[in-house]
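Researcher: Here's the sequence for the chain we discussed earlier.
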Amino acid sequence: MLAVTERCEWEEWLNYFLCGVEGQADDALKRIQVIDMLLIGWRKKLDEKPSLLAERALGLFVENPFWTVSKLALRLEVAFTTAQRAIDRLEGAGIVERTTEAKRNRAYGAHAILRVFEQPFRGGTNRRQ
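Model: Thanks. This is the structure I predict for it:
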Protein backbone atom coordinates (compact mmCIF):
# COMPACT_ATOMS: atom_id res chain seq x y z
CA MET A 1 0.00 0.00 0.00
CA LEU A 2 2.95 2.32 0.57
CA ALA A 3 3.87 2.07 -3.13
CA VAL A 4 0.32 3.00 -4.06
CA THR A 5 0.46 6.05 -1.83
CA GLU A 6 3.99 7.17 -2.66
CA ARG A 7 4.23 6.25 -6.35
CA CYS A 8 0.54 6.14 -7.36
CA GLU A 9 0.80 2.47 -8.42
CA TRP A 10 -2.95 1.99 -8.45
CA GLU A 11 -2.97 -0.25 -11.49
CA GLU A 12 -0.63 -2.79 -9.87
CA TRP A 13 -2.63 -2.75 -6.65
CA LEU A 14 -5.94 -3.18 -8.49
CA ASN A 15 -4.43 -6.04 -10.49
CA TYR A 16 -3.29 -7.73 -7.27
CA PHE A 17 -6.69 -7.20 -5.63
CA LEU A 18 -8.70 -8.40 -8.63
CA CYS A 19 -6.53 -11.52 -8.99
CA GLY A 20 -7.47 -12.34 -5.40
CA VAL A 21 -11.16 -11.84 -6.15
CA GLU A 22 -10.83 -14.01 -9.26
CA GLY A 23 -9.12 -16.76 -7.28
CA GLN A 24 -11.81 -16.74 -4.61
CA ALA A 25 -14.56 -16.84 -7.25
CA ASP A 26 -12.88 -19.76 -9.06
CA ASP A 27 -12.52 -21.63 -5.77
CA ALA A 28 -16.18 -21.04 -4.86
CA LEU A 29 -17.31 -22.24 -8.28
CA LYS A 30 -15.28 -25.45 -7.96
CA ARG A 31 -16.75 -26.14 -4.52
CA ILE A 32 -20.28 -25.54 -5.82
CA GLN A 33 -19.67 -28.00 -8.65
CA VAL A 34 -18.48 -30.67 -6.19
CA ILE A 35 -21.55 -30.13 -4.00
CA ASP A 36 -23.80 -30.32 -7.07
CA MET A 37 -22.25 -33.68 -7.97
CA LEU A 38 -22.83 -34.92 -4.41
CA LEU A 39 -26.47 -33.82 -4.63
CA ILE A 40 -27.00 -35.59 -7.94
CA GLY A 41 -25.71 -38.84 -6.46
CA TRP A 42 -27.70 -38.45 -3.27
CA ARG A 43 -30.91 -37.67 -5.12
CA LYS A 44 -30.46 -40.83 -7.18
CA LYS A 45 -30.19 -42.82 -3.95
CA LEU A 46 -33.32 -41.17 -2.59
CA ASP A 47 -35.22 -41.74 -5.87
CA GLU A 48 -35.12 -45.48 -5.20
CA LYS A 49 -37.77 -44.84 -2.52
CA PRO A 50 -39.10 -41.32 -3.19
CA SER A 51 -39.87 -39.09 -0.22
CA LEU A 52 -40.60 -35.40 -0.55
CA LEU A 53 -39.71 -34.83 3.09
CA ALA A 54 -36.32 -36.55 2.79
CA GLU A 55 -35.63 -34.40 -0.28
CA ARG A 56 -36.52 -31.24 1.65
CA ALA A 57 -34.33 -32.35 4.57
CA LEU A 58 -31.48 -32.99 2.14
CA GLY A 59 -31.75 -29.40 0.94
CA LEU A 60 -31.40 -28.19 4.51
CA PHE A 61 -28.27 -30.30 5.03
CA VAL A 62 -26.77 -28.57 1.99
CA GLU A 63 -27.63 -25.23 3.55
CA ASN A 64 -26.11 -26.26 6.90
CA PRO A 65 -24.27 -29.61 7.18
CA PHE A 66 -25.35 -30.18 10.83
CA TRP A 67 -28.85 -30.48 12.25
CA THR A 68 -30.56 -31.84 15.33
CA VAL A 69 -33.84 -33.63 14.80
CA SER A 70 -35.75 -31.01 16.77
CA LYS A 71 -34.29 -28.08 14.77
CA LEU A 72 -34.95 -29.90 11.52
CA ALA A 73 -38.55 -30.56 12.62
CA LEU A 74 -39.02 -26.86 13.34
CA ARG A 75 -37.53 -25.81 10.02
CA LEU A 76 -39.57 -28.36 8.05
CA GLU A 77 -42.67 -27.56 10.14
CA VAL A 78 -43.31 -31.22 10.93
CA ALA A 79 -43.49 -33.35 14.05
CA PHE A 80 -40.28 -34.58 15.67
CA THR A 81 -40.99 -38.20 14.69
CA THR A 82 -41.62 -37.20 11.08
CA ALA A 83 -38.30 -35.32 10.98
CA GLN A 84 -36.60 -38.35 12.54
CA ARG A 85 -37.97 -40.57 9.76
CA ALA A 86 -36.57 -38.17 7.14
CA ILE A 87 -33.17 -38.25 8.83
CA ASP A 88 -33.37 -42.03 9.07
CA ARG A 89 -33.87 -42.13 5.28
CA LEU A 90 -30.85 -39.88 4.76
CA GLU A 91 -28.79 -41.92 7.20
CA GLY A 92 -29.82 -45.17 5.54
CA ALA A 93 -28.71 -43.77 2.18
CA GLY A 94 -25.31 -42.88 3.63
CA ILE A 95 -25.88 -39.14 3.23
CA VAL A 96 -25.80 -38.15 6.91
CA GLU A 97 -24.53 -39.78 10.06
CA ARG A 98 -25.07 -39.22 13.73
CA THR A 99 -22.42 -36.97 15.22
CA THR A 100 -23.29 -37.52 18.88
CA GLU A 101 -24.18 -40.55 20.97
CA ALA A 102 -26.68 -38.61 23.06
CA LYS A 103 -30.14 -40.05 23.62
CA ARG A 104 -31.65 -36.56 23.41
CA ASN A 105 -30.83 -33.72 21.04
CA ARG A 106 -29.07 -36.05 18.62
CA ALA A 107 -27.14 -34.23 15.95
CA TYR A 108 -26.57 -35.45 12.41
CA GLY A 109 -24.07 -34.26 9.86
CA ALA A 110 -23.53 -34.41 6.11
CA HIS A 111 -19.78 -34.85 6.46
CA ALA A 112 -19.14 -35.01 2.71
CA ILE A 113 -20.33 -31.42 2.38
CA LEU A 114 -18.19 -30.34 5.30
CA ARG A 115 -15.14 -31.95 3.67
CA VAL A 116 -15.76 -29.83 0.55
CA PHE A 117 -15.47 -26.69 2.67
CA GLU A 118 -12.44 -27.97 4.58
CA GLN A 119 -10.37 -28.49 1.44
CA PRO A 120 -7.48 -26.06 0.94
CA PHE A 121 -7.99 -23.05 -1.28
CA ARG A 122 -8.18 -24.05 -4.95
CA GLY A 123 -8.58 -20.70 -6.66
CA GLY A 124 -6.85 -19.59 -9.82
CA THR A 125 -3.14 -18.88 -9.52
CA ASN A 126 -2.70 -16.91 -12.71
CA ARG A 127 -1.55 -13.41 -11.92
CA ARG A 128 -2.14 -10.94 -14.68
CA GLN A 129 0.89 -8.89 -15.55
